[in-house]
Amino acid sequence: MGYSGFQVIKQGLFGQHGWKPLWRDPAPKPRYDAIIIGGGGHGLATAYYLAREHGLTNIAVLEKGHIGSGNIGRNTTIVRANYFLPGNQEFYSHSLKLWEGMSQQLNYNVMLSQRGVISLFHSDGQRDAFVRRGNAMINHGDDAILLDREGVRAHLPYLDFDNGRFPIYGGLFHPRGGTARHDAVAWGYARAADQRGVDLIQNCEVTGIDIENGAVTGVQTTRGAIKARKVAIVTAGRSGQVAALAGMRLPVESHVLQAFVTEGLKPIIDHVVSFGMGHFYISQSDKGGLVFGGDLDFYASYAARGNLPMAEHVMKAAMTLMPMIGKARVLRSWGGIMDMTPDGSPIIDTTDTKGLFLDCGWCYGGFKAVPASGFALAHLMATGQPHATAARFRLDRFRTGVGLMDEEGTGAQHNLH
User: Fold this and answer.
1) What is the pLDDT of residues 93-127, one digit of tens each?
2) Which of 252, 310, 301, 281 shows the shortest CA–CA distance to 368?
3) Average pLDDT along the chain, 417 residues, taken 10 residues at a time
4) CATH of region 112-178+253-340, choose from 3.30.9.10, 3.40.50.620, 3.30.450.30, 1.10.510.10
5) pTM, whole model, 2 decimals?
6) What is the fold, at CATH topology level, of the domain defined by 5-74+183-251+344-416?
7) What is the pLDDT of residue 219?
8) Domain map of the chain by residue range?
């Protein structure tokens, strides 16, 4: 069913009984041309672009729970393209362009709100770094505006500008950045992929990956064996566990990243705000809740929940930046499982096993990468060649040390450790 203002009014007048299920619930077939393990944003986007861009429709997306039950529903919904390093820069620039056309292309409102991202800086050194970043963004064709102290105050008057430890010097404003509705992204891609013939198989956990003579032949699941000559692992924080089924040890660690939401409030925060010294970020949802987060929990875990010490740490940063937030009541929190690479950049690549593909290592940035990740992985699976925007996301960079993509320039050189 197409969505339109007319349909919304019509269904409202007739009790909302005319809506149809967004996608089918098929049983798995014995064989597919390609299998995508993981029914989150990246996996669904991959299936959609395989069908739309490359005409491949005999595809299955296997999800051990229900569609959208993983990290795609456990994030702070931020969309941006304010990267500095070549490789990341062109990828996220491409992703933002796909975001801007997503609702129209999918005929599904993903509620993209380009309210602007303001990244604050608190020292002369940070200002210099943000000037370089902003110039790199502009040279690449994206938007960036350097704000001085009063420029930030005009946008964000409620901040503590004269904090003794972290006074606000200014900020880098990325107007095209913003937020989107995470559930709608999953549902939109799922519906669009299903309409093009992709089978979305829910409650189907992969328990084994079949390999013969160095090539993948299919997978074992809780719903039986399924054959395929191409299999993609797109399982975010579970990437290491699933890759182990194929005898691989990935250069990733899984950590919990907590997020929080307050009670609904009247509109107060018009932008996404990032605290440069406190690793804190915040925006206001369409329902009025303040959505915010901070650092990783800094211990390896597969549990999608956080702990109170890190919650306290995030709340301290919030109070430091904007004391007014102390009056808001936190309704709930959740944890997403982040697959962290040593250099903080993702992996979209083939493996030593023919027909087995990887899409992982998204660290903090998985949500904003959803469309470009799916686009690039679909291109790789269909053509055998990396897409230009993801050409540097190679797996072997951690073995050789060549092409490491450390955005901050502070990480270890993995091949020497």
Assistant:
1) 999 999 999 999 999 999 999 999 999 999 999 99
2) 281
3) 80 89 94 98 98 97 94 93 93 97 95 97 95 95 97 96 94 98 96 97 98 98 98 97 97 94 96 91 96 92 88 94 94 93 95 98 94 98 97 94 82 68
4) 3.30.9.10
5) 0.94
6) FAD/NAD(P)-binding domain (3.50.50)
7) 98
8) 5-74+183-251+344-416, 112-178+253-340
Pull the structure tokens for residue 82: 């304010």
- For residue 192, give both structure tokens: 């669009």
- What type of residue sits at position 368? K
